[in-house]
Design brief:
heterodimer, A: alpha+beta, five-stranded mixed β-sheet, rod-shaped, B: alpha/beta, seven-stranded mixed β-sheet, 9 strands
């Protein structure tokens, strides 16, 4: 996983912020000191070797001048006191006089060592194995020879290693000490924030806005705490207000629902009363009127009155039918609202019902297109009644032996039942089809115009609707009954 | 007196004479060549000595004058060998070599080699040179015991030298410690009379 500083926990971030500058500064500081020490030691070593070479050259000049080998050896032998000097050679300019000094046999190839430019003071590096210094042997400003010294630099390199180890150790110790301090003192920053976070979590989980953070000694944190507590005060107050308003709103809604219920009950009662009045009172009067008409007809011998009596009888019969329809419609409307609704599998209901239609109406063909498992909340018998009405209406207006399509599908949160038939077109005023007493049949017969009105009532009772549309390419009609899918239906009570 | 050369024995006489001369030459040459090589070494030593000795500043400054080697006495070998080396500079001065048979003009010398022939008048010479910055050198035995400064000796077929540092100091000369270290008598510069 790619390291991201921003994703680190607060504690680790603080420790990192504390450690990083300390390590960087320590490293830079110690590096500077280290480099300086190395340079000083290097320069000192070169200077010491150079000085020794110079002093020895000045002292050996007479021995070289007079080619006194004994004296020269004696002078070179004094180098034994300097353990770093591995080799020395004094030589006259004419090369006829050469005296050498060897500390040990460690220096194998003297000539290549002396001629190696990396060992010269100018090019001497940190990892050069030897340091070769030379000085002219002079007498009276004349060069009479050369003195060469080869020094061992292992001591310098050991010192260098020790410095590096010491520097690294110091950096490590500084980092450890800084880490310990940071570990201990980070709490003064993280604890208040963690306390704040924990309080926030508790409030969020328990929705308890009474919780408060409290006080803090440090000014910035105190301000933060006070701000947080003030925010909680506001939330608590608004939450209380919200609850109070919610309760008030619920009360009001309940009042309105109760009012609507009362009104509904009153309306139902009125409808029941009207239905009773129509069924009993008015109908009795019409029966009385008809019987009187019969008596009059029997007692009258004039043929001219028969025509008028027949007309009156017919009107009375029609009135009777109308009264019966209004009574039935009022009855239906009164009972619909009191009927309960349950979860129905509309697909299964229609699937069985269409098969029965096919059996009971063999002259027609039925095409079934029913999607499975469409569920609604409704009244089983009323929905069946609505379907019966629509199919009956379709049969009445279809061409003989034509096909009636029954289709059930979902659309926009509704279950949509389409009854499609080829045959009579729709009247121009489509909305009036669903009103009471309207019939589009040319010869009404016993058709009282109640069927589509009943379907409309049932649809509205189920929070749905009914609509009719003409077919596009052929003469026919599609009736669409829409009912909300379960569980989105609102209980009308 | 050589025998008279008769006609009948002249050839024989000439042969004898040649033989004697050749014999004389053969007897004489090793010593002479020996003297010559010894003088060559001594001259080299003398030349090297002066390189390791500092003279005091004078008026006019010595640097404006040539360095003056003087040979007092009849040691011609030393003179000739010094002459051969006179093309070299001493203390950035050209060098000149003089030979005297009396010590009168020796006060102008920078370095004075005293030959064996002057052995008897050493004290007089030192009287002349006392306190003057003249480096006295000789191969006379016990020269340094007699207030001479540098004494050359032959030992085991090589030349060694002795130094009298008090006399050197009294004359105002400064001798290099490295030179002192080479001296056979290992002298240490101390306060004291030059003798």
């Amino acid at each position: 996983m790619k390291f991201s500083f921003h994703n680190l926990p607060l504690k680790k971030k603080l420790i990192f912020i504390t450690l990083l500058p300390i390590i960087v500064v320590s490293t830079i500081f110690l590096s500077v000191i280290l480099v300086n020490q190395i340079n000083v030691q290097r320069a000192s070593m070169i200077q010491q070797a150079g000085s020794l070479t110079s002093i020895l050259a000045n002292n050996i000049n007479a021995a070289v001048l007079f080619k006194d080998e004994r004296r020269a050896r004696h002078l070179l032998a004094s180098l034994r006191l300097e353990p770093l000097i591995l080799y020395a050679r004094a030589q006259s300019s004419d090369l006829n006089f050469t005296v050498e000094y060897h500390r040990s046999s460690t220096l194998e190839d003297v000539e290549s060592t002396i001629s190696n430019a990396d060992y010269s003071p100018d090019q001497f590096g940190l990892f050069s194995q030897y340091l070769v210094t030379s000085h002219v042997v002079e007498a009276d400003s004349d060069q009479i020879g050369m003195l060469v010294l080869v020094s061992d630099t292992s001591g310098f390199r050991t010192s260098l290693s020790n410095l590096l180890v010491l520097g690294s150790t110091l950096i490590l110790v500084s980092a450890i000490i800084a880490f310990k301090f940071a570990q201990h003192f980070h709490r003064s920053v993280t604890d208040p924030i963690i306390h704040l976070r924990n309080a926030m979590r508790t409030i969020s989980q328990k929705h308890d806005y009474r919780i408060r953070i409290g006080n803090h000694d440090e000014e910035n944190m105190r301000d933060l705490y006070h701000g947080f507590d003030h925010m909680l005060d506001q939330i608590q107050y608004r939450d209380a207000e919200l609850s109070r308003h919610q309760a008030t709103l619920e009360k009001q809604i309940q009042l309105r629902v109760d009012e609507i219920e009362i009104i509904n009950r009153k309306r139902i009662s009125w409808l029941e009363n009207m239905a009773f009045f129509l069924h009993h009172e008015l109908r009795n009067k019409i029966v009385g009127f008809k019987s009187t008409m019969d008596i009059i007809e029997r007692k009258t011998e004039h043929g001219g009155l028969e025509k008028y009596l027949a007309r009156a009888r017919k009107s009375a019969t029609l009135m009777n039918h109308l009264l019966e329809s209004v009574g039935n419609a009022s009855d239906l409307e009164a009972t619909l609202w009191s009927e309960s609704k349950t979860l129905l599998n509309l697909s299964n209901l229609l699937d069985e019902q269409v098969d029965e239609y096919a059996i009971s109406h063999p002259q027609m063909q039925f095409n079934k297109n029913i999607r499975k498992d469409i569920k609604v909340q409704g009244n089983h018998s009323r929905l069946l009644q609505a379907c019966d009405k629509l199919v009956t209406n379709a049969i009445e207006h279809s061409l003989f032996q034509s096909t009636i399509t029954v289709r059930l599908h979902e659309r926009d949160g509704y279950a949509e039942l389409d009854i499609i038939n080829l045959g009579d077109p729709l009247p121009e005023d489509r909305e009036s089809m669903f009103q009471l007493f309207v019939s589009s049949k040319l010869h009404s017969g016993n058709n009282r115009g109640l069927g589509l009105f009943v379907v409309k009532l049932i649809a509205e009772n189920h929070s749905g609707d009914i609509r009719a549309e003409p077919l596009e390419e052929q003469s026919g009609v599609k009736f669409s009954l829409r009912i909300p899918l379960y569980p989105t239906l609102d209980d009308p009570k | 007196m050589l025998p008279k050369c008769q006609p009948h024995n002249c050839k024989k006489t000439s042969s004898v004479l040649v033989g004697i001369i050749l014999f004389a030459i053969s007897v004489m040459s090793p010593a002479e060549s020996e003297n010559k090589s010894s003088a060559e070494v001594k001259a080299a030593y003398i030349f090297n000595f002066v390189k390791l000795v500092d003279w005091p500043e004078t008026e006019p400054p010595e640097s404006e004058l040539p360095f003056r080697f003087c040979v007092l006495g009849n040691d011609d070998f030393i003179y000739k060998e010094l002459k051969k080396l006179s093309n070299r500079n001493i203390h950035n001065q050209p060098s000149v070599i003089f030979q005297f048979y009396s010590f009168q003009p020796i006060k102008a010398c920078n370095a004075l080699f005293i030959s064996h022939s002057e052995k008897q008048i050493l004290s007089s010479i030192f009287e002349q040179t006392r306190g003057l910055p003249i480096l006295t050198i000789s191969d006379i035995p016990d020269f340094t015991q007699s207030a001479g400064m540098l004494e050359l000796k032959e030992e085991n077929d090589h030349i060694v030298f002795l130094v009298n540092p008090q006399c050197v100091a009294q004359s105002g000369l400064v001798i290099s410690s490295s030179l002192l270290a080479l001296a056979q008598n290992r002298p240490v510069p101390t306060e004291g009379e030059c003798r």
